[in-house]
Design goal:
Chain lengths: ~180, ~190
């Protein structure tokens, strides 16, 4: 997502997830966390949408981090790890837009499932040192995932979220602000 | 005074737009020849006023969006500099973006675009095209209120100018990079 005009909110989200799945990737590989990403047909857990089933489920507490190895992992009061702790004045609509993006199926369910599957596969593969997320506006929705090597020779998973141009007014009320730049 | 958004959605003049599309396609072809390792494309239908470097697996892509090509403030010079900048995200080298990880950092992409890519594509005309293109793009960002998350418009203009004049990056380049590095979270 190297854009000519880089949107602060989008970059903030990308930075948060890139850091989570690098600095704290072993937290996500923990026995009480990785299962949250293991979604599919029964007997696995279903995935309705990423916001409710993933983002709202990953919390740092005594269950997910019993030995408190990742102390200070999240500085949010609710302990959610997959959301950044935002300056609400500077980014007042960002998380609302992010919630709508998943809950209202702007990103279709098939791509939401594929995204979580790719993350789960990367978490299972311990040769993957970290995950890097990328986003691009494209003519159709899609998730592209590839294992690449960085300049140190370390393997990482590069997951690109391809998303179409969003409508100017999708009809989700005044808090949904669409600007003229990619998501 | 019309809002920036209204300016973006100004009704099309069919002839002018087809000429702009032709220019964009020609520029993409020029850059494709100069940088065959990059896959360039134009998303003409999009209203988005931007361009983007991104990766699809191991394919390195640059997409130019229709809203940028149609914008009345941007000429062939501005579009060329944008393509050079996006190419810089792939080929500009260090420093890389500390938050996004894989792309060359925004300021370095600007500098590499002006110093390396533009001369490769346009030869002796590069300096004039770069300096005029930079002024267009800075004005566009000002009018749209589209402040970049890493660099102010003044910093971008200084970096483009230094690259075009073959000078070292200006002080603000390092200052801005330090700002971004400090902002990114560090492992505990």
């Amino acid at each position: 997502m190297g854009g000519f005009i880089q949107t602060a909110g989008t970059k903030l989200l990308a930075a948060h997830y890139n850091d989570e799945f690098d600095s704290y990737i072993e937290f996500y590989r923990g026995p009480n966390v990785i299962g949250i990403f293991d979604r599919g047909p029964a007997p696995k857990l279903p995935l309705n949408n990423i916001w409710d089933d993933i983002i709202q489920q990953v919390v740092q507490d005594n269950t997910t981090d019993p030995q408190n190895i990742f102390e200070g992992h999240t500085d949010r009061n609710d302990g959610l790890c997959l959301l950044p702790n935002l300056n609400k004045k500077a980014h007042k609509n960002l998380l609302n837009r992010w919630r709508i993006y998943f809950k209202k199926m702007i990103l279709p369910q098939a791509q939401q499932r594929q995204l979580i599957t790719e993350i789960f596969n990367a978490l299972q593969n311990h040769t993957i040192k970290y995950i890097v997320f990328d986003v691009a506006e494209t003519p159709a929705y899609g998730i592209v995932s590839a294992t690449l090597a960085d300049s140190n020779g370390d393997a990482f998973q590069h997951i690109t979220l391809q998303t179409i141009e969003l409508p100017v007014d999708p009809g989700f009320g005044p808090n949904y602000v669409r600007d003229f730049r990619p998501v | 005074m019309p809002s920036p958004r209204a300016k973006v959605l100004k009704p099309p003049m069919r002839g002018a737009f087809s000429a702009r599309k032709r220019i964009a396609v020609e520029l993409l072809s020029l850059f494709s020849r100069a940088f065959p390792e990059i896959s360039y494309d134009l998303l003409w239908a999009s209203q988005t006023v931007n361009a983007q470097a991104w990766r699809s697996g191991d394919i390195r892509r640059v997409t130019l969006y229709g809203g940028m090509v149609r914008h009345s403030l941007v000429s062939m010079r501005g579009l060329a500099l944008i393509l050079a900048h996006e190419t810089g995200h792939h080929l500009g080298g260090e420093p890389f973006d500390p938050e996004l990880r894989w792309p060359t950092w925004q300021g370095q992409a600007d500098y590499w675009a002006a110093r390396t890519a533009m001369p490769l594509v346009f030869g002796k005309k590069a300096r004039v095209i770069t300096l005029r293109g930079a002024r267009e793009l800075v004005e566009l960002c000002r009018i749209l209120g589209a402040e970049d998350s890493d660099l102010s418009v003044e910093e971008r203009l200084a970096i483009f100018s230094a690259g075009a004049m073959k000078r070292p990056p200006p002080f603000c380049f390092y200052k801005a990079f330090d700002r971004v590095s400090l902002r990114s979270r560090k492992p505990s």
